[in-house]
From TrEMBL:
Keywords for this protein: Signal, Storage protein
Organism lineage: Eukaryota, Metazoa, Ecdysozoa, Arthropoda, Hexapoda
Domain spans labelled Hemocyanin middle: 163-406
GTP-binding keyword on record: no
The name this protein goes by in its record: Hexamerin
Gene3D superfamilies referenced in this protein's UniProt entry, alphabetically: Di-copper center containing domain from catechol oxidase, Hemocyanin, C-terminal domain, Hemocyanin, N-terminal domain
Length: 844
């Protein structure tokens, strides 16, 4: 009887109190590689050493010389015929030539070499073919082909992927720093400068971005984002693995087109969040009739010594291509309408749109790049001609913005999601908390010694590149979800700029999906804590090749064990960049949480109405990829929007290194229009080279704040980091003062004061305080996340009015009856015309 009583009591308590759910994630301890994987990893490493020169590794040289193509060694023997035809007709691209993915002949050769590697029937054949390609194929062709083969082959799925910026640092780092590093590597004397320092047995070059060259141009403040080595490496590898002709399950999926469109939307949303962080409007799409585009020089250099060609201002001469682009723009919506009327569903329609916009040889993106990325005859290519460097050029983002707008407008002819497709019966999101979201700039070093190796002589020192990169402290998001029954759900977390109430649907394309995960909901309240380290589809930095080599040797001698990590987990979006840069005083953003029924895709079979609703959930862009009414989505109980703050930490002391321009507080309105003088007698001087080192035009400077700060150490506890504050913690001593106006400089401005308007002052309880408790004090910035305290929800103004028969209004009523936008909204949302007026009261 006592046992039964205890069981009943436990069951009762479980129903009364919320469940604390730690969402299950992948094991924190990586798998240890068996000897077979250790051997594979050891064989692969020499393939990436000094990759643009012929390998001196004896094993690679021997295998390459003895290699012969045998049809029986390949899953598809016709790949050998394709190679032989290519070699006999056009020949292979010479090793010293420049490879670009936008050149049709170059691209076809890359595809042929990749198919030779991919279709090898076993690892032994693949490795021998890779050794042959390493010695006989153009450097750029080999790099693209070997990366894609490693990503798609099963027998290399746990190989450590080398960082692209270690193989070709000259595609990621400004050429003046590459020239300095090459000079040191060649053993030549170089005068000590501020940007070169010795660190033990290493030479470290503190590098900077192109911002200091293009100071004053609007997009120059985003150079740290455009030129981020992790972001550009991610885009390069994602473009490769998303090729439509790659034979994988992903490409064969009926939702392949939807996923590609979702990738483009996500990229643009993330970019516009960073613009918002830098007080810039949402970027405009490119306009072929009014090409007001600033010229851009990426300041990069090829391995053969040629410089990347700059993109000049508005030099479009191919009017036929522009006409074709306009025809695509004008007919895209009509195409969707015809397909809808023909009974095609959204996945099929989007797959066709992706063919038109991305995949075909004459796709919109290829034609657009041909117009803006065209260089003079016999001139080297520009940044837009390479997957590794496309994102550096601001015009890349304008073209992608145009594509997203065109597709969004075309999809408006499709019916939006119904309430039944958005509603999750019995589920309600009751609260969201996200604390200690702090960004900063940290120094990152990577090794370029092998890539810049000069001849066969090995140096007894290493050369490293140091850059300041955007990062964030660990953070946690807590979501409280109530469920009437036990069921499985899908949680989606979106991050967007702070927008005005009622305008989220209009600006939903600015919200980026930062996480999506399944959850087992218990009956009652479920408190879900999601830490930044658990977010799906993110990757940390690539393991340095020297570190991998050391781990292999240690494993062979039994000193240590080589960790295994799936390739797909190494090439995700950089985890550092999941948060946009905050501001020193806190920049407002919004978190949107949506919970849907968890659905697993099942091919075939007839579909009921419920299954048709579930089909919508399977869309990667659901629920923000189609037109929606605000009451259809944001008023649902299974959706909730919460304001949050992201703070950026800035160093107290300036960093005066060559790469330190991003590490100090800076007043933009005090910057002079200066020339960048470089001593002409310096052997590394750029005076005689490009003219972009001197500014010729004057620019108007906006008043902005500088940004960057050093990284602080912060940890997230494994336990639940959010707990309830007892009522006694509330401030009950501060009396209400009538009609008092508080300025922003007041000491206690974290609390919101109100004017109380009432005709029943005699009945007013003067001891009652109308205030909002501060969540985080300024002195708590460095507090460990595990110590964060989250208060209970305060009463709303409406509840206060109802209880006390009061009318509560903010004291600062603006005089103008026109609709006014707070300053923070003008950053991302362009104000409406002055003719649009409103009679509603507007408060500060």
């Amino acid at each position: 009887m006592k046992t039964l009583t205890v069981l009943l009591l436990v069951g009762f308590c479980a129903n009364c109190f919320g469940y604390l759910i730690k969402v299950p994630t992948l094991p924190t301890k990586p798998r240890i590689a068996p000897l077979g994987w250790v051997h594979i990893q050891k064989l692969m490493l020499p393939l990436f050493e000094n990759v643009c020169e012929e390998s001196a590794d004896p094993q690679i040289v021997k295998i390459s010389n003895e290699f012969n193509f045998e049809a029986t060694d390949y899953l598809k023997p016709d790949v050998i015929d394709k190679y032989q035809n290519l070699k006999s007709s056009r020949g292979l691209l010479a090793k010293g030539e420049i490879f670009t993915e936008t050149n049709e002949d170059n691209f076809n050769e890359f595809r042929v070499i990749y198919e030779l590697l991919y279709n090898a029937k076993d690892f032994d054949t693949f490795y021998r073919a890779a050794c042959w390609a390493r010695q006989n194929v153009n450097c750029g062709v080999f790099i693209d082909a070997i990366y894609l083969a490693i990503i798609t082959r099963k027998d290399t799925e746990r190989v450590s992927v080398p960082a692209p910026y270690e193989l070709l640092p000259n595609y990621f780092v400004r050429k003046d720093f590459i020239i300095k590093a090459s000079t040191i590597m060649a053993g030549k004397d170089i005068a000590p400068t501020e940007g070169i320092r010795e660190d033990g047995n290493n030479f470290v070059l503190d590098t900077n971005y192109t911002r200091e060259i293009y100071e004053g141009i609007e997009d120059s403040s985003l150079a740290y984002f455009h030129e981020d080595i992790g972001l550009n490496a991610y885009f390069f590898l994602t473009k490769l693995k998303n090729m439509p002709w790659v034979d994988t399950e992903f490409q064969r999926s009926v939702r392949y087109g939807e996923h590609i469109y979702h990738f483009i939307r996500q990229l643009m949303a993330r970019y516009n969040l960073e613009r918002y962080s830098n007080e810039l409007y949402e970027t405009d799409g490119i306009n072929w009739d009014d090409m007001d585009v600033t010229q851009y020089d990426p300041m990069l250099i090829y391995s053969n010594g040629n410089e990347f060609s700059p993109r000049t201002e508005n030099t479009m001469t191919n009017s036929d291509v522009i006409t074709t682009l306009k025809n695509i723009e004008n007919n895209l919506a009509t195409t969707v309408s015809h397909m809808r009327d023909g009974g095609f569903n959204k996945p099929t329609i989007l797959s066709h749109l992706m063919d038109i916009m991305v995949f075909n040889n004459n796709s919109y993106i290829n034609l657009a790049m041909k117009v803006v990325g065209d260089t003079p005859v016999n001139s080297p290519p520009c940044a837009l001609n390479h997957y590794m460097t496309k994102m550096r050029d601001p015009i890349f983002w304008k073209i992608n913005k145009k594509m997203v707008d065109l597709i969004n407008n075309a999809l408006k002819v499709l019916p939006g999601y119904t309430k039944n497709q958005l509603y999750f019966p019995g589920v309600q999101v009751t609260n969201i908390d996200a604390k200690k979201m702090i960004t900063s700039f940290e120094k990152f070093e990577f090794d370029v010694t092998d890539a810049l190796k000069y001849g066969d002589k090995d140096r007894n020192f290493l050369i490293k590149i140091s850059q300041s990169r955007l990062n964030h402290k660990p953070f946690a998001i807590k979501v409280n979800i109530s469920s009437l029954v036990v069921q499985k759900g899908l949680v989606k977390l979106y991050l967007g700029p702070k927008v005005m109430p009622g305008e989220i649907t209009e600006h939903k394309k600015l919200f980026m999906l930062i996480d999506s995960f399944e959850i087992n909901l218990k009956r009652g309240s479920n408190i879900i804590t999601r830490s930044s380290s658990e977010i799906n589809n993110l990757s940390d930095d690539f393991a340095p090749l020297r570190t991998v080599h050391k781990n292999v040797i240690d494993t062979e001698f039994g000193v240590d064990a080589l960790s295994l990590n799936l390739v797909k987990n190494q090439i995700g979006f950089p985890s550092r960049l999941i948060l946009p840069k905050g501001s020193s005083d806190g920049l407002p953003f919004q978190l949107f949480v949506f919970v849907a029924p968890y659905v697993k895709a099942t091919p075939g079979g007839t579909k009921s109405n419920i299954q048709l609703n579930y089909d919508a959930i399977l869309s990667p862009g659901y629920p923000l990829d189609l037109d929606i009414e605000i009451q259809e989505l944001f008023n649902l109980p299974n959706a909730l929007v919460k304001d949050i703050i992201i703070t950026h930490k800035i160093e107290s002391k300036p960093n005066y290194s060559a790469g330190g321009g991003y590490n100090r507080e800076r007043k933009w309105d005090t910057v002079d229009d200066m020339d960048y003088d470089i001593m002409s007698d310096d052997p590394l001087s750029l005076v005689a080279r490009p003219e972009f080192t001197q500014k010729k035009d004057k620019f108007d400077y906006k008043s902005r704040k500088g940004q960057y700060g050093k990284k602080d150490t912060s940890f997230i506890g494994t336990q639940d980091t959010i707990r309830t504050v007892p009522d006694k913690s509330l401030d009950t001593k501060k009396d209400l003062e009538f009609n008092k106006i508080y300025s922003k400089s007041d000491e206690n401005n974290d609390n919101v004061e109100y004017t109380v308007i009432t005709k029943k002052d005699d009945n007013l309880d003067l001891n009652k305080v109308i205030t909002k408790e501060k969540v985080i004090n300024k002195g708590d910035e460095d507090e460990d996340i595990s110590n964060i305290i989250i208060s209970e929800l305060d009463k709303t103004i409406q509840e206060i009015e109802k209880e006390s028969d009061l009318k509560v209004e903010p004291v600062n009523l603006l005089e103008s009856p026109r609709r006014r936008y707070p300053t923070i909204f003008n950053i991302i949302l362009k104000p409406l015309p002055k003719e649009i007026e409103s009679d509603e009261r507007v408060y500060e």
